[in-house]
Give the backbone structure.
Amino acid sequence: MSARRAVGGSRYLYDSFDVAQARLDASERVAEERHSAIDARLARIEAALERVERRLWLAVYGVAATVLAHGGLALLGTGALPAQ
């Protein structure tokens, strides 16, 4: 307001600019809040994806270990049979 009084003129000349600036400031604050909310959601999604990825690799290694164990048992079973 001090700049307005130093320049002089009607307050109605500057009030519309003050309202426009207030709207811009409010829009910027809303945009920042939305951005921070999106960042938080993205962090939660990334953490969930990492957990799913760990579970998937655990399942893959489990299946591979089972297949290898069955193959090893099959090899041991055929070599341990007495000749007939």
Residues 2-79 form one domain. The radius of gyration is 35 Å. The chain has one domain: 2-79.
